[in-house]
Automatic annotation (TrEMBL):
Organism: Lentzea miocenica
Pfam families: FAD_binding_3 (PF01494), Oxidored_FMN (PF00724)
Occurrences of domain NADH:flavin oxidoreductase/NADH oxidase N-terminal (ranges): 394-730
Domain FAD-binding: 131-326
Protein name: Bifunctional salicylyl-CoA 5-hydroxylase/oxidoreductase
Signal peptide interval: none
Length: 793
């Protein structure tokens, strides 16, 4: 096979070496525009998983790398004048320049032709003359630009400024230096890469960077460092450097750009490494990802002789891994962009927050690595809550207004579409009753509608009649008599999302017959096929407010412990808040203040009749996930407004405001929204914040609470899978101080389980130059991922 590789960085050279080992007959040429001794940055960090793949693929190269490694197991976090150490990490780093030297030598030994200081020929000409063209030419890839219409690239330029430096101070562990300056928070990511030097990355928000005067520097050409900025950094971190030097290497202020591509290959053209994707340095190394790409691509090319089939297989294999890494990296980089929100936390909680920022590292991960640190985190959390005893965070009690909750787990509202004429029946009794007996602190009903026209579907429950009230009272009484849980109801009006079929018959699809008129702030349908709603007038608003008030009174009479006003998911009150659905020109539209007006009117009216000793909370969509819609910054202001009007908690959901939304789904994907609202809107008043959305494990719950990202966690679908999830979580954690229903106590101890050491198959490739040796180009991770903690080059 004749292969052209554009880019002589680690990804391109490693691919060339692998392919040449697999078949010396491959004709491989690499073009690199820089000289062989030119490189940027200082150190490169590798995880155990990556090193395992390299060792299996090329033991000789892996051995050469290992002789140059600096290894460490600890992370030191310096914040607020204190230093905290967390152990058990296990990473290795080496000089980027030495890594390139090893790869260059490996390619020379194997007969790979490399043209240095030479721009690659035209991509079209390369494609015509080669079987395969590989774009390994980095973030600003010219290869990628040659097929931009196919790759459909998006470039997300982030808000922090950073500079990659080195120092002759050899750190004994990874170092986070968090410095609170007169301009704002500045942080350093530092780690050793040899016995003579360490990487020293300085990072700060662009606003801090400007206030500190770093924006006054001139534009520096390629190959020239920003010496004035480097000198200021030496002064700023003089205490941390303790007399040691800081070195530049083409070092200048950069803004990280997240690169994403809808496709990574086009015919015989394929992208690897930063040309295809980037992940912020605070979670993973671009070098690491590029070399993993090369491992996977070499394996697929060896497996599949047809290039198109091989490239399709490569993309199918790597894309899920890379996208997962990018999601974690996005969470990590946003955390550092917002680090100023957290520096006021108690130091131990701050450290835990930092370490778990990407959501790949959790409380259980850290306890496995450093149980002493986990104990300190537990103690710090208990102290912050005024509690004398430590326990899993999810099982610590919580006071919501005047309502005492036995723990911090909420069964989230979930529409069941199983009522008749709005009346909840035996299904709802069993559904909510079983969840209450499963151990949560609070059980929430589905959205209870204020009128027949306020229903989403004909199967939705309501509180517009006394019959409905009495049926709800039966359910509330069961929960109170048979469990120690509290029960709340979610009150709302469907607005323009009403008159639709039951979920399993077609979610958000209009009824085939028996429709009722839908209403909204503006005559804009929810999505394709949705009816055009009638815009509400003054009489409508007064009538609907009265319906909310009447339903709230019935809810109080039914005995509910809590009321949640539904101002999320594109229903009526939510549609007033969003500029996507509210395009009015009167006092209820336009500015955010105006868009808040009617939801606040309803809140005030309901709060006036809802018993003062019972909490009233609000669910909001913290982002519309759509252009022109509300963002998390708007959500902070929305939350502040409801808090000012007396909300006891803000329940932070997102989206479902428009059918055109593009959510960034992932594990606990809405938690950062709750985190921002908690720190920017709720902290000043002590108002509770509830996190919800893809929180699936007790470890996630504990991690969210311990880091201070939320006060309570609402969990939905997991409770459909396991109605007794909270009790089972207690058993899994060997936590005994929970109250099982007396009828179920015989099952309160975790039963023994048989261990099975399942081994996933590994791919073995026969080396052409040594038929008796196997080369493994894919690997099975053999321990929990820890790449959410360590930045790399």
């Amino acid at each position: 096979m004749k292969i052209a590789i554009v880019g002589g960085g680690p990804g391109g050279l490693y691919l060339a070496a692998l392919m040449k080992q697999l078949d010396p007959a491959h004709d491989i040429t690499v073009w690199e525009r820089d000289a062989p001794d030119v490189t940027f940055g200082f150190g490169v960090v590798f995880s155990d998983e990556t090193l395992g793949g390299i060792e299996n693929a090329d033991p000789e190269f892996a051995d050469a790398m290992s002789r140059r490694f600096a290894r460490w197991t600890d992370i030191d976090i310096h914040v607020g004048g204190e230093s905290h150490t967390v152990g058990g990490q296990g990473f290795a780093a080496m000089s980027r320049k030495e890594l390139l030297g090893l790869l260059q030598q490996r390619c020379r030994d194997l007969g790979v032709v490399v043209h240095y200081s030479t721009p690659a020929p035209d991509v079209g000409a390369l494609r015509a003359s080669h079987d395969l063209v590989v774009g390994a030419d980095g973030v600003n890839s010219l290869v990628r630009q040659s097929s931009s219409d196919v790759f459909r690239t998006t470039l997300d330029r982030r808000h922090n400024k950073y500079m990659w430096l080195g120092t002759d101070l050899v750190f004994e562990a990874f170092q986070f230096f968090i410095k609170d300056t007169e301009w704002g928070t500045v942080q350093v990511h530092g780690y050793p890469y040899s016995d003579s030097g360490s990487t020293f990355i300085v990072e700060m928000h662009e606003d801090v960077w400007r206030r500190a005067g770093f924006d006054t520097a001139e534009e520096f050409p390629p190959g020239v460092s920003d010496d004035r900025a480097v000198e200021r950094i030496r002064e700023l971190f003089a205490a941390e450097l303790a007399g040691h030097q800081v070195f530049a290497n083409n070092s200048k202020w950069l803004s990280f750009t997240t690169v994403r591509n809808e496709r990574w290959h086009d015919g015989n053209l394929v992208l690897v490494g930063d040309a295809a994707h980037t992940a912020h340095f605070s979670i993973g190394s671009g070098t690491k990802l590029a070399m993993e790409d090369s491992l996977a691509l070499a394996a697929c090319l060896h497996e599949h002789r047809d290039v198109e089939t091989a490239l399709t297989a490569y993309e199918a294999e790597r894309r899920p891994v890379v996208e997962s890494t990018q999601r974690a990296a996005q969470a990590s980089l946003e955390w550092f962009e917002n680090i100023g929100m957290y520096v006021g936390q108690e130091a131990t909680r701050f450290c835990f927050n930092l370490l778990t920022r990407s959501r790949r590292i959790t409380y259980d991960n850290l306890r496995t690595r450093d149980s002493d640190f986990a104990d300190r985190v537990d103690a710090a959390f208990a102290a912050s809550q005024g509690l004398e005893t430590t326990a899993p965070a999810m099982f610590q009690p919580f006071r919501l207004g005047q309502l005492e909750l036995k723990n911090r787990v909420i069964v989230s509202p979930m529409d069941m579409y199983s009522a008749v004429d709005g009346v909840p029946g035996d299904f709802h009794l069993v559904h909510l009753g079983s969840k209450a007996m499963g151990g949560p602190g609070l059980v929430m009903t589905e959205m209870v509608c204020v009128s027949p026209e306020g229903r989403i579907t004909p199967g939705c429950t309501g509180l517009w009649t006394d019959e409905q009230r009495d049926s709800w009272a039966r359910i509330v009484s069961f929960v109170h008599e048979r469990s120690t849980a509290r029960i709340g109801f979610q009150l709302g009006h469907s607005g323009r999302k009403g008159s639709t079929r039951l979920m399993w018959e077609g979610m958000d699809e209009p009824l085939p017959d028996g429709n009722w008129e839908t209403i909204s702030p503006s005559p804009l349908p929810y999505g394709p096929g949705s009816p055009v709603p009638r815009p509400v007038g003054r009489d409508d608003l007064d009538r609907i407010t009265a319906e909310f008030v009447a339903a709230a009174r019935r809810g109080a009479d039914a005995g509910f412990d809590l009321l949640e006003l539904h101002c999320a998911h594109g229903y009526l009150l939510s549609s007033f808040l969003s500029p996507i659905s509210n395009q009015r020109t009167d006092s209820y539209g336009g500015s955010l203040e105006n868009r808040l007006r009617y939801p606040l009117e309803v809140f005030d009216a309901v709060r006036a009749v809802w018993p003062a000793e019972r909490p009233m909370i609000v669910r909001i969509s913290a982002t519309d996930w759509a252009d022109g819609g509300n963002t998390e910054h708007d959500a902070v202001e929305i939350a502040r407004a409801f808090i000012a009007h007396g909300a006891d908690a803000i329940d932070v959901s997102s989206g479902q405001v428009t059918a055109d939304e593009r959510p960034a789904y992932g594990r606990s994907y809405q938690t950062p929204l709750a985190d921002r609202i908690r720190h920017e809107a709720a902290a000043a008043t002590g108002t509770a914040v509830i996190a919800v959305g893809a929180i699936a494990s007790y470890d996630d719950v504990n991690s969210i609470l311990l880091a201070g990202r939320a006060d309570l966690c609402a969990i939905g679908r997991t409770h459909l899978y396991d109605p007794h999830w909270t009790l089972h979580a207690a058993a899994e954690q060997d936590y005994r101080d929970v109250q099982w229903p007396v009828q179920y106590r015989a099952g309160s101890r975790k039963p023994p389980t048989a261990r099975t050491d399942a081994v996933r198959p590994r791919l073995s490739l026969l080396r052409a130059d040594a038929p008796d040796r196997n080369v493994h180009l894919r690997w099975t991770p053999h321990r929990p991922l820890v790449s959410g903690v360590i930045p790399a080059g």
